[in-house]
Amino acid sequence: MQPKFLKNNYVKKYSKDDIRIIEKLITTNSWWDTVDFIAKQILGKYLLMYPEDIPNTVSTFSKSQNMWLNRSAILFQLGYKSNTNQDLLFKQCTIH
Length: 96
Fold this sequence. Notes:
Blueprint: H1 18-28, H2 32-49, H3 54-63, H4 67-75, H5 86-95
Helix pairs in contact: 1-2, 2-4, 3-4
């Protein structure tokens, strides 16, 4: 069952392998506005569908030399509102 805040006819059904495409989008369309949109609207929704991938994805993106992946590891929870994992968010902010 989807969380209430995820119920939306426009939510894409991602496959597990889509994380590779998302990473490529972030690293090849790198500018503030595009990365911020991708982090929130694409990566954020992907990780809502696969929350078990959050630790690995956030760790990988945070350790990257690519600043856009680092930024995405911080911003993906935009829009999560009360479901934001504050501990994870604050940890990412202190790393960078």
